[in-house]
Amino acid sequence: MKGKTLKNLLTKLIVGVAIITTSTALVACSNTKGAEGKGEESKPKVEEGSNSKDATTHYPVTITNYNFAGEEVKVTFEKAPEKVITTNQTTTEIMLDLGLEDRLIGTCYLDNPILDRLEDKYKKIPVISEKYPTKEQVLALEPDFIFGWKSVFSDKTLGDVSEWIERGTNTFAQRNTVKTVGNYTVDNLIKDIKDLGLIFNIEDKTNAYVKNIEDKLNVIEDKTSKLEHKKTVLVLEEGKEGEFRLYGKNDLVGDMVLKAGAENLGKESGKVSLEDIVGLNPDAIILVHQADGKDVRDEELAKVFTDNPALKNVTAVKNKEIIITGLAETWAGGVRVIDAVNHYAKELYPDLFK
């Protein structure tokens, strides 16, 4: 009897343990699935195209940028922008060259024809306006990021950056359009690109992009550093009534000329007459053009100098050392800058590049 009772007791004990073990396992499985579900909800998907940090550890990021008055503004990004409007050609081409075309919802304002290698990408992006868009046009698109020149944030165009940031639309003005930054330089372009790496969480890509710029500059500067005589240059843009706009050493193209191994005779931006050009007598002239639909290096444009009898004794005109360049290469800073520096150096010193 005792044996039978003991056997029944052991049977009940074994069944009880089995039930407890099974219940624990079920609870554990349930908790594991719940934890996985919560993880998927709380952990944002890493942005497409990102090859840097996980988005959960990368954001928020804060950069320093500028308003129309040139004052510093702190701009915080909680995630990579997904609905971007670019208001100028340089910013459009930077976005396309960095592979961020899927973030663009609109572009505007071409100074020169779009870069050949980016044309297919560009054709897929809606053009909002031939020049600057109206505030109403931009509001209708509900962007989360506006990327352009400082001038687009004037009261006459889109208005102050603080208004856009308060609406949830972050802004970025290229440094080489903000006078308070100081002289416009290639280094400012590099800083812009590095900021974009932070904003879009693509620092691996932008670091490689910057290294490529620096490596190309080093090659050019290594060649031109051997020069015993550096050529003098005037950087001009045709104006009205025989006057020309002069680009000075404070302009981006002034820094580009320096990196190409030449001396810019223009100290500061301003205007010059034909008489001034004759008096300065540069070894070469770089002619900047825009808004004419012509190729950035259309040599026919040199006729403004070569066909003018008043300039026939200017060294640059006599030797036909007129270098044609587009505003998309020389203003604000974009993907064309380094190739343009290389082009200037080769035109100025062809023997160095044989």
What does this structure look like?
The chain is of the alpha/beta class and 354 residues long. The protein folds into 2 domains: 55-210, Nitrogenase molybdenum iron protein domain (Rossmann fold); 228-353, Nitrogenase molybdenum iron protein domain (Rossmann fold, 3-Layer(aba) Sandwich). It is 42% helix and 16% strand. It is built from 14 helices and 13 strands. The chain has helices at residues 2-42, 55-58, 89-97, 119-123, 135-141, 161-166, 186-200, 203-224, 252-259, 274-280, 303-306, 315-318, 327-330, 337-348; strands at residues 61-66, 72-77, 84-86, 104-108, 127-129, 145-148, 170-173, 232-238, 244-247, 263-264, 270-272, 284-289, 322-326. Strands 8, 9, 10, 11, 12 and 13 form a 6-stranded mixed β-sheet that branches. A 5-stranded parallel β-sheet has the order 5-4-3-6-7, with helices on both faces. The protein has a two-stranded antiparallel sheet with strand order 1-2. Strand 6, helix 6 (161-166) and strand 7 (170-173) form a beta-alpha-beta unit. The radius of gyration is 30 Å and the shape is globular. The N and C termini lie far apart (111 Å). Mean pLDDT is 89; it is low at 1-50.
In one word, what is the shape?
Answer: globular
Oligomer: single chain
Give the mean pLDDT: 89
- How would you sum up the major sheet? 6 strands, mixed
- H and E string: HHEEEHEHEHEHEHHEEHEEHEHHEHH
CATH superfamily of the largest domain: Nitrogenase molybdenum iron protein domain
Report the CATH topology name of the largest domain. Answer: Rossmann fold
How many DSSP E strands? 13
Query: What fraction of the residues are assigned to beta strands by DSSP?
Result: 15-25%
Which segments are poorly predicted (pLDDT under 50) over 5 or more consecutive residues? 1-50
Radius of gyration: 30 Å
CATH class value of the largest domain: Alpha Beta
SS-based class: alpha/beta
How much helicity do the residues have? 40-55%
Calculate the terminal CA-CA distance, rounded to whole Å: 111 Å
Total helices: the number is 14
